[in-house]
Automatic annotation (TrEMBL):
Residues 1-19 form the signal peptide. Pfam families: 7tm_1 (PF00001). InterPro entries: GPCR_Rhodpsn, GPCR_Rhodpsn_7TM. It comes from the Eukaryota. The chain crosses the membrane at residues 245-265, 277-294, 314-335, 361-384, 404-427, 460-479, 499-519. Keywords: Coiled coil, G-protein coupled receptor, Membrane, Receptor, Signal, Transducer, Transmembrane, Transmembrane helix. Residues 256-516 form the G-protein coupled receptors family 1 profile domain. This is G-protein coupled receptors family 1 profile domain-containing protein. Residues 544-563 are annotated as: Disordered.
Length: 563
């Protein structure tokens, strides 16, 4: 605070006190009274100027060190000074009234003191307003720091309650910045109107009064608030809608595959060697549902937590082992259907036909070994799927992640789609030829029955590669492109697209048992007998079919051609 004018006044008072001996009164008592009062006023003025000096020292502490205590002490001192100076001016008026001959002394010029007092009041008002702004700024910074901490916590844990707190704190921050700008505008107008730009000033006070900076800050925080509000919908989807879809898919898929596994466990007639690959596929789908739905939901919730490298490796190995088992078992089943339907076992080798225990073990073992080999790279670099480990070397880990996503796209989607499509195309073509080559001596109702079975199998086999392509290709294409291009994981589009495509992957886990149910009369009959309590009705249908003529081996191969 610049109080030079006040200090100059103090020097003037000292010189004025020296003129005390020049006062003349009409009588001795009047002269003594005037001299005594004049001296008292000089002493009072010295004390007042001492207060101004103390105020100058205190305000330097506020301007240099931003010490609020110094500002408060300065305000108290100046308020006392103003009160004393007002009494001082009143004493001057009394003295001039009682000693008219002293009215021409500059020391007793009350207009001079009033002018200095008004300037001091203006400076005090600026100081109070600046202090108020500074206190508002401290509160604003505190709110901003708390909001930033909550936002970081939300980004780490992704919990809805953290998002609600972040939105609420950011709204408060925007309101505080708006109020702060209004206060700064009022202070700026006051300073300019009262010509106080050169008093009580420093670099940080100039920054405090910088409205342009505050407006930019308000704009940024408003954008942050809108981004958080947009994030609220994805969070609701991740917390409520996506888990609900996972639960639905998990329950349906687990129930269907559980029925299939139960049928295999309960009825010995179905446990034929050529049907073991169907059981293996059902087990693989069940494991995939268990690992890649509830556990993955947990992983998405805690992926930013601290995990040991061993835990990360075990988890990612199990996750991609289940993916591989489901995909490669479906491909192996397609190969088996192709071999069984076309009867190429003699020309193409024993491993294709799968009609013996030895051959089934070899094919299932091959599926497991291939799945293990596929899961090993993901296990070795499993730690990069967790944020803390990924951030240790972002550039290297990004390249590794891109390579792994590319392997997933090729190994779990592109190649299986091509293999399944080609093999099922040949199988369907042979089923069409087979439907046209039914024995001529077969009764018409038997021909219609055989054509119905073959047509149903043909339709399911035509639909299977389409379903597999629609459910697997979009997800792996999206995550691969996203790994190279990058996107905001909290955006609405990312949440909806990835969540929907991820759910599509597990449609296959529910599609395979359903397809078997609609195409295999044997499986459908056992399901009804075991789960729908239709044993008597089914027994009657069995007796009726035993009287009918069927193609040799057709009923036994129903489950072979089901999927």
């Amino acid at each position: 605070m610049r109080l030079q004018s006040s200090l100059l006044l103090a020097a003037a008072l000292v010189s004025c006190v020296g003129t005390e001996n020049s006062v003349h009164s009409e009588d001795v008592n009047g002269k003594e009274y005037a001299s005594r009062r004049f001296g008292e006023l000089g002493t009072i003025n010295k004390k007042l100027n001492k207060k101004l000096e103390n105020a100058s020292v205190e305000i330097d502490g506020f301007l240099v060190n931003r010490n609020e205590s110094s500002a408060h002490r300065t305000i108290e001192i100046i308020k006392e000074y103003i009160s004393s100076r007002e009494e001082f001016i009143e004493q001057i008026l009394i003295l001039k009234t009682n000693a008219p001959h002293l009215r021409n002394l500059s020391f007793l010029d009350e207009s001079r003191w009033n002018k200095e007092l008004n300037q001091t009041k203006k400076e005090l008002s600026k100081l109070e307003q600046v202090l108020k702004l500074y206190q508002m700024l401290l509160k604003l910074n505190e709110t901003s720091e708390i909001a930033n901490d909550v936002i970081k916590l939300f980004k780490l844990e992704g919990k809805g309650r953290h998002l609600e707190s972040a939105i609420k704190l950011t709204e408060e921050l925007v309101q505080e910045i708006t109020s702060f700008i209004q206060e700064v505008s009022v202070v700026q107008n006051f300073i300019i109107s009262q010509n106080l730009t050169e008093v009580i000033t420093s670099i940080w006070i100039e920054q405090l009064l910088d409205i342009q900076y505050l407006e930019n800050l308000l704009k940024n925080k408003t954008e942050d608030l809108r981004a958080l509000q947009r994030t609220k919908i994805p969070v609701v989807i991740n917390i409520y809608i996506r888990p609900s879809l996972f639960v639905f898919i998990f329950v349906v898929g687990l129930a269907e595959n559980g029925v299939l596994i139960t049928i295999f466990a309960r009825y010995h007639k179905i446990r034929k060697y050529r049907n073991m690959i169907i059981l293996n596929l059902s087990i693989a789908d069940t494991l995939s549902l268990i690992i890649n739905l509830p556990v993955t939901q947990l992983y998405e919730s805690v992926s930013s937590w601290n995990v040991s490298p061993v835990t990360a490796q075990i988890f990612m190995f199990c996750r991609f082992l289940c993916f591989g088992l489901s995909v490669f078992s479906a491909s192996a089943l397609c190969l088996q259907r192709f071999s069984t339907t076309l009867k190429l076992s003699v020309r193409s080798g024993f491993i294709i036909r799968q009609s013996t225990k030895h051959d089934s073990i070899i094919l299932i073992s091959a599926v497991w070994m291939l799945s293990i080999a596929f899961a090993i790279p993901h296990s070795l670099y499993g730690c990069i799927y967790f944020e803390e480990c990924f951030n240790t070397n972002v550039e290297l880990n990004s390249k590794i992640a891109n390579d792994l996503f590319l392997i997933d796209l090729i190994g779990l989607s592109l190649i299986p789609v091509v293999v399944i499509t080609i093999l099922y195309w040949f199988t369907v073509r042979h089923l069409k030829r087979r439907a046209l080559r039914l024995p001529a001596d077969l009764p018409e109702h038997q021909k219609a029955y055989q054509r119905k079975i073959l047509s149903r199998s043909k339709n399911i086999m035509t639909l299977t590669p389409i379903v597999f392509a629609v459910t697997s290709l979009p997800y792996y294409f999206y995550v691969t492109i996203d790994s190279f291009m990058g996107s905001d994981i909290n955006s609405l589009s990312y949440t909806i697209i990835k969540g929907a495509l991820y759910c599509l992957i597990f449609v296959n886990c529910s599609f395979n048992p359903a397809a078997l149910y609609f195409t295999s009369g044997t499986f459908r009959r056992y399901v009804r007998m075991h789960f729908f309590w239709c044993r008597r009705k089914s027994d009657k249908r069995i007796k009726q079919k035993q009287t009918q003529r069927v193609l040799p081996g057709e009923e036994d191969n129903t489950m072979d051609t089901a999927l």
